[in-house]
Amino acid sequence: MISGCQGPGTGGESAVATYGQTTLLRQDLARMIPDSLSAADSTLRASQIVEAWLQDQAIAEEARKVIPEADARIKPQLLAYENHLLEQAYLDWMMDQQNSTLQVPLEEVQAYYEKNRDKYVSTEPYYQFFYLKTEQPNQYKLVNLIRSDDPGQIQELISWAQDNATEFRLDSTWAQDWELERVSNGFYFGNIRNASLATPYPYQHNEGDKTYYDFFRMIRKIKPGDPLPFSLCRTEIENLLKSQQVQKIMEETRSRLVQQARAANKITTN
Which of 111, 167, 196, 227 is the Cys-Cys partner for 133 at CB 3.0 to 4.6 Å? Predict the structure, then answer.
């Protein structure tokens, strides 16, 4: 039976389905449906969950009929699984509580990276490049500025771009393939992925009735199979080391809680 009324033993809470004396509450159903779904998809997903729940109840009822002491046989597994879920919920809660306060020293992150370099291998290409797009023609000095590795000239280029460019990328962070593809419009020197390192490429393209003048310089490339640089691994390593810290706190919490339980005479062993 699917309903929106109160079911047996719900304590006044709204039930969406009952099977015999077992009830599926609306609030429990809501927890099983992702918030990201549309209204139509949520309704469909709710119907699927209810149907699966009813089938589960039917199987459970039949199992109790044909298997002697079925509930007693599975009780230890149920208790272990319940404890596992509670432990995971507590660990997740602890992660939320500790995440904003846990700090991993940069030196520790770098040391882990150096010790485990072989674990961090690229599975996709990455690129470092400078790119600038402007509507102003005849900016010949930009070729020399974008070619330079001198910090002063790079800062001069950035200052010019801030005042005159419609778009620019003038830092050394790593970009994925789609970001490189996005700036290739009008690049007539072949495949932009094969651009020679340190060579400035001026090119132009039209967008509607506007003409844009682009400047591109490839700095470094990473191919699949190449070692990943530290900057691309840092966040992952920090999260790993934070997780290890939380696991250590969890183990200390286990011992402390058991000691407290023993002190309160809650524990007996034979």
Answer: 167
CB atoms within 10 A of CB 18: 20
**What tens digit of pLDDT does each residue of 165-211 get?**
999 999 889 999 999 999 999 999 999 999 999 899 999 999 999 99
- CA angle at 18 for the pair 12 and 20, rounded to the nearest 5°: 115
Do residues 148 and 176 touch, judged by C-beta distance below 8 A? no
The distance from CA 60 to its chain's CA centroid, rounded to whole angstroms, is 37
Structure tokens, 116: 């485990």
Sort 125 into a burial class: Cβ within 10 Å, 0-12 / 13-18 / 19+.
Answer: middle
pLDDT in tens, 165-178: 999 999 889 999 99
Q: Are strands 15-19 and 22-25 parallel, antiparallel or unpaired?
A: antiparallel
Say how far apart CA 202 and CA 140 lie, in whole Å: 9
Alpha-carbon span 202 to 141, nearest angstrom: 11
- Using CB atoms within 10 Å of the CB of residue 147, give its burial: 0 to 12 exposed, 13 to 18 middle, 19+ buried: middle
CA distances in angstroms from 250 to 87, 106, 258, listed in the order given: 10, 23, 12
For 2, which DSSP code?
Answer: B
C-alpha torsion 161→164→167→172, nearest 10:
0
Cβ burial, residue 19 (10 Å; 0-12/13-18/19+) = middle
